Amino acid sequence: MAVHSKREIVAGLDDERFRTSFLPHPLPKYSFPRAETDPAAAYQQVHDELLLDGNSRQNLATFCQTWVEPEIRKLMDECIDKNMIDKDEYPQTAEIESRCVRMLADLWHAPDAGNTQGCSTTGSSEAAMLGGLAMKTRWRTKRQAARKGRPNLICGPVQICWHKFARYFDVELRQVPCERGRLHLTADEVIRRCDENTMGVVATLGVTHTLQYEPVEEIALALDDLEEERGLDIPLHVDAASGGFIAPFIHPSVEWDFRLPRVKSINASGHKFGLAPLGCGWAIWREAGDLPQGLIFRVKYLGGDMPTFALNFSRPGGQVIAQYYNFVRLGREGYTRITRECADVGAWLAEQVKKMGMFELVYDGRGGIPGCTWTLKKGGNYPFTLYDLADRLRVKGWQVPAYPMPANRSDLIVQRVVARLGVSRDLAGLLLEDLERAIQHFRRHPSSKSFTARSAGGYHHN
Ligand SMILES: *Cc1c(COP(=O)(O)O)cnc(C)c1O
């Protein structure tokens, strides 16, 4: 077919989008427009601006879902008018949310999955706030008699949402710093920081910076011992934003969930490995009694009594419907197949990156979130930094972030790929080719930044 067939050009000229007088002018940016605009023209203009956003499928930085089945688009469209909070008007959407809560409680081994408490949220951040608030409320009730002290929360290199929680809700965050080869929480480091004002401990199943799981079971057992020895009963919350939809399927022997009595609440992002479209998170409590009743507001509907616990009021319902669709559509088998395939791509990519010779793997793609994390081998003489490589890959549309680890290892710069559904072995191969090309480029044109970065980093597994 000719690139510009005559018929196409003529058709284009007949099209409103190309005839409108609107096109020669820039879109309004600083003041509210006075006049109306034709919908087709407005659409085209807004649509075109989005070209600059880049391609989400090549965004290997995000943990969030960027590929969905056409059936999900259809359900999202059908639900665009549904408000999650209107349990009264959309009782079936509310029912579907409750089903998802029970199914997740079952997946995560709650002792009485059919009767526990939980809710959907806009993501893990909101779910983390709710989990944190529940811990804080329980702590306050317990410490009422003492009437002193400020609550503290112990964690490792957590996602930003826990820093937000601590600041917004006035909690002291006792973040265990990274040291040498230890890039996450350990039981010893947790126990050393516990006191009577510790409202809880957060362990992360799938640390954002490295993709590795923190040792939830080890921490839970150490907290059990602590209670026996010193009488401190400290709940454990698991931030399983990614891992909550990974471990149950491909790491079934890792005990991180309600199989451990110490784990009182879990959050996960439906829109990450839960494969729902953006805007879906979950918070689930071990038993109904683990969520303080004072935090729950009751919405009476259809003679029933619907508990709600959320930060926002109105919220789209489609994401929850799409999540339920996924559960029905995929089941354990489907999630296991997809997650295994993602993990295989991650591990393969890690091997290839290692073979290139100049990189040290921080995470080899096995035992945690599908993907891999690497750093530059110490002592080498490289004509680039990882930041340069990240920049160079952007030229081909890839987003492969380079960033420092948190304190006290901010000298360690790492680079990370998350292998999501849609990051096929083929795409991963194309990325590797571009990585090789980027390195060749810097061999010919050394980056000036690389000369000041020589003394940086270094990582050795403990
Ligand atoms: C992504 C993530 C969050 C935040 O989740 P959102 O769904 O983006 O709000 C919190 N914790 C961890 C470990 C994460 O990976």
Detailed description of the structure:
The protein folds into 3 domains: 7-53, no CATH class; 73-329, Aspartate Aminotransferase, domain 2 (3-Layer(aba) Sandwich), CATH 3.40.640; 340-444, Aspartate Aminotransferase, domain 1, CATH 3.90.1150. α5 packs parallel to α11 (318-355) and α11 packs across α13. A 7-stranded mixed sheet has the order 1-7-6-5-4-2-3, sandwiched between helices. It has a 4-stranded antiparallel sheet with strand order 10-11-13-12. It has helices at residues 6-14, 16-19, 39-49, 70-78, 91-107, 124-142, 160-168, 187-191, 216-230, 247-250, 318-355, 386-394, 425-444, and strands spanning 118-121, 152-155, 172-175, 198-204, 236-239, 263-269, 281-285, 297-301, 304-308, 359-363, 371-376, 402-404, 413-418. By secondary structure, the protein is of the alpha/beta class. A hairpin with a 7-residue loop joins β10 and β11 (371-376). The structure holds pyridoxal-5'-phosphate.
How are the SSEs ordered, and which strands pair?
Layout: H1 6-14, H2 16-19, H3 39-49, H4 70-78, H5 91-107, E1 118-121, H6 124-142, E2 152-155, H7 160-168, E3 172-175, H8 187-191, E4 198-204, H9 216-230, E5 236-239, H10 247-250, E6 263-269, E7 281-285, E8 297-301, E9 304-308, H11 318-355, E10 359-363, E11 371-376, H12 386-394, E12 402-404, E13 413-418, H13 425-444
Parallel strand pairs: 2-3, 2-4, 4-5, 5-6
Antiparallel strand pairs: 1-7, 6-7, 8-9, 10-11, 11-13, 12-13
Helix pairs in contact: 4-11, 5-11, 11-13
